[in-house]
Every structure is written in structure tokens, then in C-alpha cells.
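User: Can you fold this complex?
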Amino acid sequence: MSSRAPAPAPEPMRQRSARAAEVLAAAREILETEGSESLTMRRLGTKLGIQAPSIYKHFPNKAELELGLVEAAMAELGVVLHEAAGGGTRGAIARVLQAYRVYCVAHPELYRLATAGPLRRDAMTPELEEWAGEPFFLVTTDEDTAQALWAFAHGMVILEIDDRFPPDSKLDRTWKAGAEAFRPQARG
Amino acid sequence: MSSRAPAPAPEPMRQRSARAAEVLAAAREILETEGSESLTMRRLGTKLGIQAPSIYKHFPNKAELELGLVEAAMAELGVVLHEAAGGGTRGAIARVLQAYRVYCVAHPELYRLATAGPLRRDAMTPELEEWAGEPFFLVTTDEDTAQALWAFAHGMVILEIDDRFPPDSKLDRTWKAGAEAFRPQARG
DNA sequence: CAGTATGGCTAACAGCGTTAGCTCAGTATG
DNA sequence: CATACTGAGCTAACGCTGTTAGCCATACTG
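Assistant: Here's the predicted assembly.
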């Protein structure tokens, strides 16, 4: 079905202290501008005008801090995808794929952090993941196809980000081929 | 076209000293049985009955050692895929996908190592990557679809390995939905 | 005013990849 | 045979990482 639940609101972000939010913002800036290898506790401390151990007054460990970044990324991506999924069934799959690509390629380090390795569902805001992925279900006819479409999108993005495709690849065409394959009706 | 080059032989592996091969084998065993976090120079040295710095007599650095593992994985995967692609066009896509899934899920740590982050093409055996991916071209009608199919397969595998799908997912059905979507003819 | 939380600090630890420099066995060469 | 060289091990150490312990000042709060 193309209409499921009425998009159950983006989930209230886990509330953090003002200083913790600053830490998170600084971490995000380091990650996005200098890469994941530069996101160290000491580097982060320097950016905040603080010593590294002081960060532990705001986050119990680095994993928890990264989890904050991941949640933010998933929330943002969810918004983008829901916007793309809304507004008519006509070409909805292509729109969602396009939105997915644009957001993820614009935030490669964040996306890699969010999708590398196992997901710590226990520690995450419940149902945030589910909500963010919902648009894929909204634009497909069944949930198997929705998951397959998501896998395609993720594969494309991560391979594009990591520069894994052959150097002369025309990725616009690859995305189009994928969107075509998943189009509900017979293809041309 | 479904018939391209006649599968240009699996590439001769870069020749290494006997001891280097032993190091590589030990590294692989650690990686596959204990996980990537356990693959440290000191742990590897212990397994070989050697001190960590001695490993540098055989490999210039850890990255080069890992690259050896990646090459081995790609060669093995290439063989598996070529076997699956051969033997008739009937259901070839499904067979290649199945082979991809079986091999990668059986070697999750190796696969993650091989596909995480940018690929160092300069240091790799030339065309090994191309050859390993060739089966996707052999079973599709055009190269855009081939790349899209590969992206789907990679997305599925990496998400499955990292346990990223919702807990109750029936992944057999998801794979089937993907194979169905990429089937050359109109779908049922 | 006393007490307690907040948020900094320094010193330090274990583990990581890696380098420098030594040694010793085996082989090849004069 | 003696010499030199090369391969492959060793220890000590460096700089980096995340993290802990313990100390101290400031600022609310009863």
C-alpha cells in the first residue's frame, strides 16, 4: 500500500545539556570538514578550548558522542526523504532516490559514520531508524521491494562516496537504471 | 551484450615470499575468527610466534598487509561469481546474486575490510577489481544496469552483515524482490 | 553560610602502528 | 677457509589513541 501510517512525527531528539550540544556541533564540524580520522577527543577538545578528558563530563565515551551525530544525521535524512516521498505517486521512487543521493553525498563522512558497522539499536532513539526508512515503504508496493530499494540506494551512495565505481562511470545513468528497475509498471 | 570478453583469467597473484604468505594466512585467520578489532600487529605477531616489529620484515605496513587480504578476497569472489554467471542465461541474475550473498555472508569480516572506505587502486593488482565485477555485466543487458545490480548486491550484503535490517526481516524475500526488479523481461 | 553539583584541570595508563638499531644464522663470494 | 652480505628475528622507544583518577574552582541551593 502506498499509504501507511501518517508519518508519526520526527521523534523528539534526546535532550542534552547546552554544553553537550556545543560539543556535538563541534564534533560534527570536525567530522565533516576534516574527516573521521581527525575526530579525536584531543582534537575536539582543542576546538572547544578544553582538554580532552573534560569532554567526558558531557559524554560517557566517544561512542555515545558519535551516536549523537548518527541520530542527527538520520533525523535530517528522514525529513528529506519524507518530503521527497510526499506530493504524488508520479515518479516518487526517482524522487526519493534523488533526495537520498543528494543528502548523503553532501554529508559523506556523516553518512559513513552512520552506516559503518553494526547499529546500536539499544542506545538509539526508538523508531527513529524505522521512521527515517519509511519513505521507501511509501513509494513501493510491498515491503520486500522497499527494503530492496533501500539496499540499492545505500549501495549506490556508499560506493559513490568511497569512489568505488570505475573512474569513468556515469553515475546519473546508473541511478536511472536502478530507478527504472524498481518502477512498479513494465519498463520501456 | 551478454557476451563480452572471454573472462581474461583470474590474474596472477602478486608473488610473495613463503613467510609473507604465512603472515597473510595468520592475519586472515585472526580476522575471520576474532574480528577486525583483533587484527593488530602484536596479536598477529603472537600467533606467528614473533614480535610485532618483525612483521615489518615482510610487509612495509599494516595497510599493505590488509591489501593482500583484500586481493585474496576479491579473487575468490571473482571465481565464485564467474562460476555462477556461466551456464545459461536462464535465471543468471538470481544465480549471481545468490553466489554473491553466500560468499560474502560466509566471510563477513573479509568483505567488510575489502569494501570499507576508498579502494587503493594504485596499489592493487590491475584489473582484478574489474574482473571480479565482470559477472554483473555478463548477466545484464547494459552496463548501467550492471552497476546498479552490483550496488544492490553490495547494499544487501553489507546491510545484512552489519545486521542493519529490521530484526524480523525475511531477507530471502528481499533478495528475491531485488532479483525480480532487475529481471530483463516484464515482471509478473 | 554550608553543601553540592558542574565543569574544568593535570597526570597517567594501556594499547595502537611504527621506527631505529642490534644480533645472529645462513649463504654466497673472494 | 675467511669474509661479506642478506634475511629475519629481537628490544627499546616514540607519538598517537581513548580513557580513568583525582584535584580544584565556581555557582547554585537549602
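Chain B touches chain A through 38 residues (CB under 8 Å). The mean pLDDT of chain B is 92.
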